[in-house]
Amino acid sequence: MLGRLLGNASQRVPSLLKRVSLIMKPKVIFVLGGPGAGKGTQCSKIVEAYNYTHLSAGDLLREERGRAGSEYGQLIDTYIKEGKIVPVEITISLLRKAMEETMTKDETKSCFLIDGFPRNEDNLQGWNRVMDGKADVKFVLFFDCSNEVCINRCLERGKSSGRTDDNRESLQKRIQTYLQSTRPIIEQYEKHGKVRTVDASRSVDEVFAEVKAILDKEA
Ligand code: ADP
Ligand code: AMP
Question: Which parts of this chain are annotated as the region LID (predicted)?
Answer without folding.
Answer: 156-166
